[in-house]
Design a protein that fits this description.
It is a single chain. The chain is α/β, with parallel strands linked by helices and about 250 residues long. About 35% of the residues lie in helices and about 15% in strands. Helix 8 (about 180-190) runs parallel beside helix 9 (about 210-215). The radius of gyration is 19 Å and the shape is elongated. The protein binds zinc ion.
Length: about 250
């Protein structure tokens, strides 16, 4: 059913959560928009104006790596100070209460970790843009370290000092292999939850689309909180098309 208004939505959601042992939040860009981070895929979003750099172009071209890092630092200046919103804090509260063992996210902004959920319990399907990794030896680099070398070299992306591999934000780019461990854990969590809570995701981008269906097939209930309709609204037990922060905020004080 589609919740007719905000108070009903909050009540129904609370009932679903109270009557569940394991709640699995699955989050997309919509949970972070109130933090000032735009949905890159939305109409008018950055990706409709500036095509993302595919993985094969990143690894085959120094100028593409330079461009990727130039864009990343421009984003840092715009969104680098973003803090967790009401939705993130509510899910962190569910985690602390033992209701939600982990969160699956399509977001790369690190805001679930910033809200207090341990990194080990945040399953990132698209990686994380707040730090970088060497594509060869997997050594981690922090953004200020990359930026200092980038600036000193006049806007040239640095390579790994240890192995000369390319250094890239820890995100999954188009054309890059999905993170196997995250995909496996997301599948296991989905199969063992009894409430799948899709929040702020259009559930269109693969692999996101597969999880709600998997949860329903295993007998879990499905709640969808999203501004726009999704392809799974028909099979959902509860559909809420309201402001995510307003819907989730009351969960902080159960
Ligand atoms: Zn390396």
């Amino acid at each position: 059913m589609i919740a007719p208004d905000l108070p009903t939505a909050v009540d129904r959601l609370r009932d679903l959560i109270e009557s569940s042992d394991v709640v699995l939040p699955f989050t997309g860009a919509g949970i972070s928009t109130e933090c000032g981070i735009p949905d890159f895929r939305s109409p008018g979003g950055i990706w409709t104006k500036m095509a993302p750099i595919p993985f094969d172009e990143f690894v085959s071209s120094q100028s593409m790596r330079d461009e990727a890092w130039r864009r990343r630092f421009a984003m840092q200046d715009q969104f680098g100070d973003a803090r967790p919103g009401r939705g993130h804090r509510a899910l962190a509260a569910l985690h602390r209460q033992g209701k939600a063992p982990a969160v699956i996210t399509q977001n790369i902004d690190n805001l679930h970790q910033d809200s207090g959920i341990p990194a080990a319990n945040v399953i990132e399907l698209h990686g994380n843009t707040t730090y970088a990794l060497c594509l060869d030896c997997n050594k981690r680099y922090e953004l200020p370290w990359v930026r200092e070398r980038f600036d000193k070299a006049g806007g040239r992306a640095p390579d790994c000092p240890h192995c000369s591999g390319f250094i890239k934000t820890a995100t999954i780019s188009f054309g890059q292999a999905m993170p196997e461990d995250a995909m496996r854990r997301a599948g296991e969590l989905t199969e063992s939850c009894d409430l799948f809570l899709a929040i702020g995701s259009s559930l269109v981008v693969w692999p996101a689309a597969g999880f709600p269906l998997m949860a329903k097939r295993r007998g879990a209930r499905l709640a969808i909180i999203n501004r726009e309709a999704t392809d799974f609204d028909d099979i959902a037990d509860l559909v809420i098309r309201d402001d995510i922060g307003a819907v989730l905020e009351p969960l902080m004080t159960r």
